[in-house]
Amino acid sequence: MQITPAEIAETLAMVSKQHLDIRTITLGLNLRGCTDNSIDAIARKVYDRMTKAAEKLVPTAEQLEREFGIPIVNKRISVTPIAEICAATDATDFTPIAVAMDAAGKEVGVDFVGGFSALVHKGASSADKRLMESIPNALSATDNVCSSVNVGSTRAGINMDAVLKMAGIIRATAEATADRQCIGAGKLVVFCNAVEDNPFMAGAFHGSGEADEVVNVGVSGPGVVRAVLSDLPKDADLTTVAEAIKATAFKITRAGELMAREASRRLGYAQGILDLSLAPTPAPGDSVAEILEAIGVGQCGGPGTTAALAMLNDAVKKGGVMASSSVGGLSGAFIPVSEDAGMIRAAERNALCLEKLEAMTCVCSVGLDMIAVPGDTSIEEIFGIIADECAIGMINNKTTAVRLIPAIGKTVGDRLDFGGLLGYAPVMPVNRNAGTVFAHRGGHMPAPLNSLKN
């Protein structure tokens, strides 16, 4: 499908007036050739591989920005899950690899590096266990490295031992970065049904079915959708609202398709997926919560919020798949608290609670994202939140995730300030009735009946 000059002109108007941007160009890299029995040798190989493969990523993205006038907010790298390249080493701490990833990312000028990761949904290898145990130290010793662990899937069920382990690691990571607003936990996500071509952080990693180098692009544009809905009459019915969202998503995705094609061609790497998720920022007018309010919900979190979000998510997907043959990743609507000015406002007014956010994750594109909880939240309570979210993903055959930040030394009413795109997070109350038995039963939650599809 050809991209016309009229489309480009319309896109430029979206950029100048409605906060349209390309949220990220993420270069996925296969690191399987970096394996060694020496942890230091692996670290050196990882650094060399990343710096050589990504040396033109940022200059190419900046050139595209200048030529097309569309901002590219982040340039990122995702790599093979690090646990997968560490089976040959007997090192107990994988932090040197994270430090090498961080140094390589800074050398080539990217904003984040993802892939300090492990996939343990059916079981954990020795390397997987050592990686998970390395996460608190690795994320406290680096600035831009992100970590993810997949603990469940529809086909495999949920590894409940891994869920409990990650609950403790989340808390330990927050404690290790307590002097920096507990930001380590903000770079750590626990998944069910993780996808292998996600360009967004903190959950990006380069999956086993991918080519050696792949360019994945994540678009955004909640401000554009909100502006379109604001122009609709108040008596427009929901079919009209859905059609307006769908048409807008088509246009946003076309802009991303153009940039993805050009980035792939100029870098000489395979074109991967286009993730059309509506990814908010703390900037005024760039909020998914405000889209829901423009649809007609009085305050995000109030009755009707989940229904409005379901319609939004579906319309975004329908519009996107008509605009590109490469739509993938997560693709839908993100509902992070700290990164969305409307979500922050709703949480501060007590209109939005953790339980309502959990309900919303049944119909959004990911899960509980960038949520600050009291610093004394117990391991069992964190476990329960992760387990609940994984169960939603497992049963509904969708990606769900938890990026929870225990605010060490803080309580409800306080806040964590991260700055930039991460914004700030009001500390939200947690239901204290988790108990102590469920978390410690251990074992494996069996896959649901709907996993039997063959």
UniProtKB/TrEMBL annotation:
This is UPF0210 protein GMI68_04915. The lineage of its organism: Bacteria, Bacillati, Actinomycetota, Coriobacteriia, Eggerthellales. Homodimer. PANTHER family: UPF0210 PROTEIN MJ1665, UPF0210 PROTEIN SPR0218. InterPro entries: UPF0210. It comes from the Bacteria. It comes from Xiamenia xianingshaonis. Gene3D superfamilies: 3.20.70.20. SUPFAM superfamilies: PFL-like glycyl radical enzymes. Pfam families: DUF711.
